[in-house]
């Protein structure tokens, strides 16, 4: 849909009107036959048709192009009233800048920023509304430190709120302690497995050393026996030598 032609000041050229909604072009596109349309209008038209609504020439979405530059400039220079005119805004500005103005217009209807409040109010009156809004929040006057809504004043109980907070803190503390306990147990279990593994390796190394020592002792005994045998043979040879 385009801009309501009644909002514009002065004459608007027919070439700047949408061929479908007959309002002033909004986000315009142009067909090869040079007829112009609002983007939303022509896209909606082409869902059910395959031709131009003006001259019935065949068109496709892929053939649509932006408006000619000179037409775009003429469109942007058009002067129109703010959409909040009915609320008291007297601003008249170019189509090129109307969106920027309306985003900041003091007469725009905006929602209250307090959660739960459904009031729509003019931007210029928002501060006044927030000061009296029944959904506004404030700190408890009794000093418990809680932020409460004015609508909940009669239901607020400092002792009950603090008790609830303590219970939540207690539950959170228990959860943290349990989590720390599980983490510590996991670390201890990991260290225990590591120590068992190291002990097994050391035990294997000790057994290997014992085996090597046993072989060495056996070799030493064999050498000592061989030495005794050799000494006896020498003594026998010496005895036979003296007898000769």
The unreliable regions are: none
Number of helices: 5
CATH superfamily placement of one domain? Zinc/RING finger domain, C3HC4 (zinc finger)
How large, in whole angstroms, is the Cα Rg?
48 Å
Order of strands across the widest beta sheet? 2-1-3
Structural class: mainly alpha
The main sheet comes to: 3 strands, antiparallel
CATH architecture descriptor name of one domain: 2-Layer Sandwich
Please estimate the helix content: 40-55%
Spatial gap, N to C terminus:
143 Å
CATH class of one domain: Alpha Beta
Q: What is the residue-averaged pLDDT? A: 87
Count the strands?
9
Shape: elongated
The fraction of residues assigned to DSSP E strands is 5-15%
User: Would you give the CATH topology of one domain?
Assistant: Herpes Virus-1
| Series of H and E elements | EEHEHEEHEEHEEH
């Amino acid at each position: 849909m385009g801009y309501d032609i009644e909002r514009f000041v002065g004459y608007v050229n027919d070439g700047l009107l949408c061929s479908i909604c007959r309002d002033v072009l909004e986000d315009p596109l142009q067909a090869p036959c040079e007829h112009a349309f609002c983007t939303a209008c022509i896209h909606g038209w082409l869902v059910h048709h395959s031709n131009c609504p003006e001259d019935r020439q065949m068109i496709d979405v892929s053939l649509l192009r932006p408006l000619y530059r000179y037409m775009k400039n003429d469109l942007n220079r058009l002067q129109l009233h703010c959409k909040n005119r009915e609320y008291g805004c007297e601003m008249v500005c170019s189509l090129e800048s109307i969106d920027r103005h309306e985003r900041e217009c003091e007469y725009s209807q905006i929602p209250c920023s307090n959660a739960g409040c459904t009031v729509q109010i003019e931007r210029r009156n928002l501060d006044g509304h927030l000061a009296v809004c029944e959904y506004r929040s404030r700190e408890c006057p009794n000093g418990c430190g809680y932020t409460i809504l004015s609508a909940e004043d009669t239901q607020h109980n400092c002792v009950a709120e603090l008790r609830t907070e303590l219970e939540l803190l207690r539950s959170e503390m228990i959860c943290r302690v349990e989590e720390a306990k599980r983490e510590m147990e996991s670390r201890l279990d990991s260290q225990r497995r590591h120590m068992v593994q190291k002990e097994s390796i050391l035990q294997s190394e000790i057994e290997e050393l014992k085996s090597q020592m046993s072989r060495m002792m056996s070799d030493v005994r064999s050498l000592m026996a061989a030495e005794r045998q050799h000494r006896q043979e020498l003594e026998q040879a010496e005895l036979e030598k003296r007898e000769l």
